């Protein structure tokens, strides 16, 4: 009978062998396209992975280090013999990494398998990767990617995640997260517009980004439309489609917490989603840029604008600070006031809190509907302010009627439902 330890060890050995076979198979197929036939193949990679696994089982860190040195030395010798015909070091480094992954599979087979698959993909897709970096990716785009990575992976983790400042209302981590979020949404719109054009790219990006933050999406679309008016209709469609995503996400949030409340709010959410989607569809269908050469020559600009993203976060921060001061001055005046203030930032938070209170039998379903609708209304008002701030009068003139139509439809659905 296998014990639990035996089964874990056996699983690790199988994963190690699988990694070696997978990466080795890819390298084996490359032999025919390589200038030399001396490159390591499926057997060498499989043996290297098993060596790494066995070294961990035999003696842990010291034995693994010695094994890695031996494999690395062998790869170095092979490189010295073939570097005149094939100066790349990819196979040699892949062999060493496969050995280490084999050892890692004994301790964490799932993560080792995932890294092994990524390694195989990097090796298999080398031509596409080279083509993308050399011929598709521009210098400015590469710079933007590096800058975004620095913001997301360095600045964001270092930002203090605690409330501070007047009324303890400002959270630096949350504000930096907003900056990163706006940059990411803007970059998504950039990629979609470059790939599909303004006609399809911006509406699709707007809908997808709406599940992250509809307010940030409206801001990002407005910023892009203000730079280039030819994409105005696509940006408006994307902004309104993001509100459709808000309705869908709110339904999911409420349904997960309290399904009975979702049934009561089904008509308002459906009415609001249909109104926003229908209004956005008008711009998508009737005011699209031409599909000929003009669309292909569209100036997509930069992936994101750090200054505009920072201004958005600052705007949100000022509103949070103002609402916190108002709340401290007036005190608690019931759920409607709290829902209105919370809705300025996030309508989903209001919906989730009301649904949670309903699920805990603290309030009835009828008592929960009002705060949710009020929060959604103030959130829509916030979107209108953001639209004017980011895209100017012309963008806001297109967006605000759609937002007004949406919120009227929401309240109409609530009235019909009652």
UniProtKB/TrEMBL annotation:
List keywords of the entry alphabetically.
Answer: Membrane, Transmembrane, Transmembrane helix
**Spans traversing the lipid bilayer:** 6-25, 45-73, 93-122, 142-160, 172-193, 200-219, 231-254, 261-286, 306-329, 336-356, 368-388, 395-416
**What residues does the DUF4010 domain cover?**
180-389
Q: From the record, what ranges are coiled-coil?
A: none
Report whether Hydrolase shows up as a keyword of the record.
no
Record's superkingdom? Bacteria
Which residues are in the MgtC/SapB/SrpB/YhiD N-terminal domain? 13-124
Q: Respond yes or no to whether keyword Transmembrane is given for this record.
A: yes
- This chain's protein is named Uncharacterized protein
Q: Which organism is it from?
A: Massilia psychrophila
Taxonomically, what lineage is the organism? Bacteria, Pseudomonadati, Pseudomonadota, Betaproteobacteria, Burkholderiales
